[in-house]
């Protein structure tokens, strides 16, 4: 039997997870590949775009829940494609009905179709309403430490600053801002958007992020299943490096073998 007390667990809204890699469910060639890549990633939390993926809205079409059942995974409905607080709140209320009262959700309110950058004023409005309505809100946001603190003060259970633009694969463009958010946060901080490859995921974890969420970097790879495995290893390696405590950067050489006590 596994000793969970001694494991490095991720806790979100009172529930613990062994994996710190969260994955999306879109852009795969079919549902079987979605399941195979999800399992290769070792992910336990799967985000679902309610406006784009069927989880029961269309009873005549195949449902994502047929291959990723809520009994085995935590389904995280999100508001991808929403550009106002009103639309985002309505979308997550619909998701709650489809998922039998499910409370954990991912909020994202976009500013425009070109950049998909978060609209922070609308995000704050939606977050307040959703928290008041009893949702556990994980929230996609800009890498602004002040905005992140405001979302935490509202009652969001996790903040999810972007590394770079959604689907861009540009990696972490502003590690300093991420570090400021991590330093002040009392809730989990997960990088969301912009990861392109396993080294990006490792860097996010080395900075001290609690987890990473990605979709395009896996689903858009030439071999999604293999990339999913690589991302799993990248997240694990980055977390281990963070917990280990890296050596300080220096502007001078330091020999691996000490000079004192030489035999000859």
Q: Which structural class matches the secondary elements? A: alpha/beta
Helical content class? 25-40%
Order of helical and strand elements: EEEHEEHEHEHEHEHEHH
**CATH fold type:** TIM Barrel
Binding site for 1-deoxy-D-xylulose 5-phosphate: 167, 193-194, 215-216
Protein name: Thiazole synthase
Active site: 106 (schiff-base intermediate with dxp)
Family: Belongs to the ThiG family.
Architecture overview:
The protein has 264 residues and is an alpha/beta fold. The protein has one domain (10-244): TIM Barrel, CATH 3.20.20.70. The chain is 35% helix and 16% strand. It has eight helices and ten strands. The strands form three sheets. It has a five-stranded parallel beta sheet with strand order 5-4-3-10-9. Strands 6-7-8 form a three-stranded parallel beta sheet, covered by helices on one side. α3 (120-132) runs parallel beside α4 (145-154). The longest helix has 21 residues, at 224-244. The model has no long low-confidence stretch (mean pLDDT 92). One of its GO terms (cellular component) is cytoplasm. Keywords: Cytoplasm, Schiff base, Thiamine biosynthesis, Transferase. Belongs to the ThiG family. Catalyzes the rearrangement of 1-deoxy-D-xylulose 5-phosphate (DXP) to produce the thiazole phosphate moiety of thiamine. Sulfur is provided by the thiocarboxylate moiety of the carrier protein ThiS. In vitro, sulfur can be provided by H(2)S.
């Amino acid at each position: 039997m596994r000793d969970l007390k001694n494991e490095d667990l991720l806790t979100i809204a009172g529930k613990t997870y062994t994996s710190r890699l969260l994955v999306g469910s879109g852009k795969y060639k079919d549902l079987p590949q979605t399941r195979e890549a999800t399992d290769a990633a070792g992910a336990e939390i799967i985000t679902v775009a309610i406006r784009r993926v069927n989880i029961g809205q269309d009873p005549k079409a195949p449902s994502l829940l047929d291959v990723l059942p809520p009994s085995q995974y935590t389904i995280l409905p999100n508001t991808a494609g929403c550009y106002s607080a009103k639309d985002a709140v309505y979308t997550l209320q619909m998701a709650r009905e489809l998922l039998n009262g499910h409370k954990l959700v991912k909020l994202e309110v976009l500013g425009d179709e070109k950049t998909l950058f978060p609209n922070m004023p609308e995000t704050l409005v939606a977050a307040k309403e959703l928290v008041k309505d009893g949702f556990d809100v994980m929230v996609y946001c800009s890498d602004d430490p002040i905005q992140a603190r405001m979302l935490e003060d509202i009652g969001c259970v996790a903040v999810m600053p972007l590394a770079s633009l959604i689907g861009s694969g540009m990696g972490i463009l502003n590690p300093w801002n991420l570090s400021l958010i991590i330093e002040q946060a009392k809730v989990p901080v997960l990088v969301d958007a912009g990861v392109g490859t396993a080294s990006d995921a490792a860097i996010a974890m080395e900075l001290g992020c609690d987890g990473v969420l990605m979709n395009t970097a896996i689903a858009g790879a030439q071999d999604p299943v293999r990339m999913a495995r690589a991302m799993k290893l990248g997240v694990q390696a980055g977390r281990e490096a963070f917990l280990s405590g890296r050596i300080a950067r220096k502007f001078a050489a330091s020999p691996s073998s000490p000079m004192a006590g030489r035999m000859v």
